Structure formats: structure tokens, C-alpha cells
Amino acid sequence: MKRSDGRILGILIAAALAFMSFAGCAPMKAGYIDRTGNIVILPTYDDVGPFSEGLAAVLKDNVWGYIDKTGKEVVLAQFDRAEPFKGGFARVAQGPYWGYIDKTGKVVVDYLYDEAHDFESGKAFVMRDDRAGYLDEERRYTAARPGVELMGFEDGLYAVLRPEDRCSYIDKAGDRIVDQTFEECGPFHGGLARIELNGGAGYVNRRGMIVIEPRLDDAWDFSEGFAAVEKHPNVGYVNEKGTVVISYQFDEGRPFREGLAAVRLESHWGFIDPKGNFVIPARYSEARNFVNGLAAVDFGGLWGYIDPRGRTVIQPRFHGAGDFGDGLAPVWLDAEVAENLVVSQTMR
Q1: Beta-strand relationship, 81-82 and 252-257
Q2: Would you give the DSSP letter of residue 172?
Q3: Which of 51, 29, 65, 69 is nearest to 343 (CA)?
Q4: pLDDT one-digit tens code per residue, 287-302
Q5: What is the C-alpha to C-alpha distance for residues 257 and 272, in angstroms, rounded to an integer?
Q6: What distances in angstroms separate CA 190 from CA 121, 130, 181, 224, one per listed residue?
Q7: Residues 7-38: tens digit of each pLDDT
Q8: How far apart are the first and last CA of the chain?
Q9: What burial class does residue 199 get, using C-beta atoms within 10 Å of its C-beta: 0-12 exposed, 13-18 middle, 19+ buried?
Q10: Are 240 and 204 in contact (CB under 8 A)?
Q11: Bridge partner list, 30
Q12: What is the pTM for the complete model shown?
């Protein structure tokens, strides 16, 4: 496609989507764009996932398969559910059961599990016959001890839910690292994990010691040294010592990514730096985090992309937009607009 054609096409798509956004929701089709905003994989899919390790899961006719960055189908569409590749494997489901495949589509772990998670630090948490367990690096299954439910594996530690609905943490060997139990246990990020105790939220370190007292109304995972926390009705940010470094002033806050965090004031989103200063004003209807230097934002019904200085680098002409991965990002268009686009491209 010539650059001038791309500009004209973008104007036509934006005009059509603006009308359809006003008229109401419509069925969507999904494809992929590159970092210049050009559609490089046509929107012929009912749904898509992000590119990861060179492949992306795509849905057509109610079954999922995987394509490469040229749009070529490399794993035949045959799955009822499909997740991104991580560490060379992807979680896929046929019927109610999950298994794992490699990048050739070969099943490396049979469809045996009611629930399955990505491999982390050489282990993957799974559920089988209502009993928790994990797969090791050789993909061998080990059941957890009776009365223990593994909630997930992150940063070398499991969160363990016990029959009395209390939780704690164990290490790789299955040894409990702290005697105290909590009402909720989150995964570790940056050496700290979110917990709840006596109705309040706080954080523990990898030794199970409370380092931020559970006096918060809500709290989220740490990222880049900060965590969004809530003292009703507002959200601020604390550092790893529990010091409030960005005051409680926002209606909603997202994790820091690439040095910026998306925050909401009333009905609009913007981005702040680690000092709490707005570097991109709150002017968007919705905003995703920065990933690989770009953030998808909603300009009021149509999505585009901005850079960390708030400059619009991909004009708003999509009805939905995801994060960039492997140089491509998923986008969604109204089905009628997508069909016209596909016809115009196939006639060239």
C-alpha cells in the first residue's frame, strides 16, 4: 500500500467508525498493525491475541489457531481456547480441559487439566480432578498435599490456600516460609506480595514478614518500585518501604510501565511520572499502559496510539486496540468496515 493510500484509507475508516460508534455497538473483526499504523494482517478474524515469541492466537469460525507475523497459519485452528506462547509453550484447551503445545503445534502435555497456568521459574500451576498440583521442567505432574490448594507460582514462591480459607506461602521445596496466615495472598512482584489481613490490604516480603501494614482499603502489585494503593475513595502510590510518594488524588491508577502510569481523574485518563507529575494530561476516555514505547488510548470512541511525550503517532481510527508485541499490535474494526477493507485490498 502506498503512503497516500494509507492516509486516505485511514480517513475513510475513521469517518465510518465515528458514525458507527455513535449509532451503537457492532460486531468486530480483528487484525494487526505495525508501528507506523499500517494494517499488515487484514482484519478477518473474530478475535485475536497479542504476538509473543513470533506467534499469535487467532479465532475464526469458533476455533483458535496460531499465525506468524506474515499472517501465515502455522498451527492449525483446532482449539476452543488458546493463550500466548511463553518459554516455547502455549496453554490450549479442547473442550473443558487444558494442555500445552510447542510452536509446531505438537501436544507436549495432554489435555488433562481443569485449569493451567504459564510456566514460571520452571514450574506451572495446574488443577486436575479438583486437586491442585504443578508441572516441573520436564512437564511431569506432581499433586499437592491434601488440604492445600496452590493458587499460582510467581518469583519462586507459591501462594497456598488452606481449607479454612486462609493462605500463606511455600517455597519450591514445599516448605512454608512463614507461620502466619492471611485472608488473601497475591503473587510476588519485585520481592513483595499483596496480602489482606483483618479486612485491610498490605504487603509481605519473601520471608513472609509484613513490611507494609495491612491498613489500606485496597492495593495492587508492585511494578518499577511503586504500587497503586487506595484510601477510599482515592488512589495514590507507595514505594517499597510503604511511604506514600504520590498522594491520594486519583479515581483510578494503573501500574507503572516504562516510567509512566495511567491514572484517571473523573472521566478522563492521563499519565504521570514517578513524582506524580502529569506528563500527559488527562484527556482520554480510556488508556492502556505503555508497552515498547507506545500506549493505546481512546480518543472518545476511536483508538489510536501515543508516545511517552503525548504525541499522537498512530491516528485514532480503530474501535479497539491492544499492546504492541514483536512489533505488531492487535486492532479491532467494525465488521462492515473490515469487510470493505479486505475487499479493497484483495482487489489491488
Answers
A1: unpaired
A2: T
A3: 29
A4: 999 999 999 999 999 9
A5: 11
A6: 15, 31, 21, 8
A7: 434 434 444 444 334 334 579 999 999 999 99
A8: 9
A9: exposed
A10: no
A11: 45, 332
A12: 0.86
